[in-house]
Design brief:
- By secondary structure, the protein is an alpha/beta fold.
- Helix content is 39%, strand content 26%.
- The protein has 3 helices and 7 strands.
- It has a 5-stranded mixed sheet.
Amino acid sequence: MEKLAITKTGFTKLEEELKHLKMVERPRITNDIAVAREHGDLKENAEYKAAREEQGFTEGRIQDLEARISRADIIDVSSLSGDTVIFGATVTLENLDTEEQKTYQIVSEYEADIDAGRIANTSPIARSILGKDEGDAVEVFTPGGVVDYEVIKVEFK
């Protein structure tokens, strides 16, 4: 079974979500199903059908989270250092055409949030810069065409 690289913060969020689903959502849904059953005919009971659908979704999410947690390879970013872009690094890139700078942290696909500046290690930008050093120029193949960047800074925070 392939290990899943994930930051310590991301792992904690997965554990918190799993705990919430098991301790809060699962009992609430079970109660919703019991209340809906009391309304009679289950064939035409929209509340019952909705609760059962939610139960299926929640149980599937619980299984998914348990699988991810069991495969997790937790990376403590604060213990990393260097000038080379690796998983967990926070990288400042400069677009060589526009001179615009952007900063991204490379995380797992389960933690990615572009609005928060976290990109998946499987994204086109991350794949292009992994293994590069500060000062290196890289070409990133995007749906809009090729974009040239320079790795300005590599940090681990």
